[in-house]
Every structure is written in C-alpha cells, then in structure tokens.
Amino acid sequence: MVRHRFVGIDEAPTIEGAAVVIDVLRAFSTAAYALHAGADRIILVRRLDEALARKAELPGARALCDGPPRAGFDLVNSPARVLEHELTGAAIVQRTTAGTQGAVAARHASPLFCAGFVTARATAERLRDTAEVSFVVTDGDEDLACAEHISALLRGRDDAAPFLRRAARSPAAANLRELARHGFPGVDARDVALCLTVDRFDRALEARDEGPDLVLRLAGR
Questions:
Q1: Domain for residue 201, yes or no?
Q2: Full domain range(s) for residue 210
C-alpha cells in the first residue's frame, strides 16, 4: 500500500523520497500546455529577478510570470495565452507565487513531479511502484482536491468528478472568472476550463535538479 501525506510549501523541505507539487490554477497547468506544445524545458525559479537573469543567459529563452504582464517577461501564467505563442524548442523560465515556490522548496525530492488535473493520471502512472508519496499543496482547495484525486488513483479509485467539482467551486476559480470578466491582463476566460480538463495529456511533468537549475520536462525525456 502506497503511503501518502499532504504538506504545504513550508514543509516541502522535509520531504524524503517522492513528491508531487500541485498547482492547478495555474502554474503547472500552464507548464503542461507549454511543454506539450513543444517547449523544450521549463526552468523553475523562486524570484522575478532570478527569472530575468536566467533568461538573459539563455539565447532565445522566454520568461513567464503570474499576475499582469511585466517588463522583460514574454509570457503570462495563462494556458490559453501560452497556446497563442510558438514555443517549439524554447526554454521557458517560470516564476509564480505558489507553484514554482513549492517546486523549488521540494527540489531535493526524488522523483519530483509537478501536476494539475491535466496530468493527473499520467502522474499517478509514474508513481505506481513508489512506496511513499508526499503531495505539496501550494495553494487552495483546488490543489488539495487534485492531490486527493491522484492519491485516490494510486489506491485504485477512479472518479475525478467530485474532485473537479470542488476545484471548479474553489475561491481561486471564482477569482479567475471574475478577473477574466473584468478583462484583467494576464487572465483569459478560457483558463479555468483548460486547467480543469482532466487527463488532457498522457505524459507527466518531471522536475530534476540540474544544478544550478531545477528543470521541468515531459517525463521520459
């Protein structure tokens, strides 16, 4: 029987063994769309200045952050907006206020996956033979719901519907819909639906410490 525990970002450095960092709305949903659209890799960082510095060191790299568009950043943390860009072969440096913070905090974990509903089953498949898994819940109930769904998949229970309903009703989802309704830069009206398309992709996102970078790629690459 796989043992599971659920922790916040502050506890992520204590993880031993496998970890899954969850950010449904929107960091690791956006990352999944970008990588499956052809981006080569995503470098996860903690700070905005770090993202811009790393971008400057990598020819052709794009920098991505959440919130409204910022000077020096090429992409916003929106799956819908990311899909409007040609990303084939690109390196992306991603900094967000929740998802990348959790990933960096858990970077010593091995294996380390970053996930949302769009890669839930693919992530569970990569963890089938793992004795213990820690789920890093980076934000609200939408992330806890996704973590519990992946945990349920690992225990042989396959019903995403109640977890998706929780995520759709979460304060974070409501906030995104309201921001989109008011035309807030960096948010797209399609984002919530894209983030809650369960198992949209059949490859998980695996992060590896490639010192100095924490690099996110499609699992198996």
A1: yes
A2: 3-216
Looking at residue 152, which CATH number applies to its domain? Answer: 3.90.1560.10
Q: Are 27 and 96 in contact (CB under 8 A)?
A: yes
Look at residue 221 and tell me if it is in a domain: no
Flag whether the pTM goes above 0.90.
yes
Residue 164, domain member (yes or no): yes
Rounded to 5 degrees, φ, ψ at 199 are 55, 40
| 99-125 burial code (b ≥16 CB/10 A, e <16) | bbbbbbbbbebebbbbbbbbbbbbbbe
Give a yes or no: residue 186 inside a domain.
yes
Per-residue pLDDT of the chain (221 residues), as tens digits, is 568 999 999 999 999 999 999 999 999 999 999 999 999 999 999 999 999 999 999 999 999 999 999 999 999 999 999 999 999 999 999 999 999 999 999 999 999 999 999 999 999 999 998 989 999 999 999 999 999 999 999 999 999 999 999 999 999 999 999 999 999 999 999 999 999 999 999 999 999 999 899 999 999 86
Under 8 Å CB-to-CB from 113, ≥6 apart: which residues?
18, 19, 20, 21, 123, 126, 127, 204, 205, 206, 207, 219
Nearest to 177 by CA among 162, 187, 167, 164: 187
Closest by CA to 219, choosing from 55, 36, 22, 30, is 36
Instruction: Tally the domains of the chain.
Output: 1
Sign of CA dihedral 91, 58, 98, 114: positive
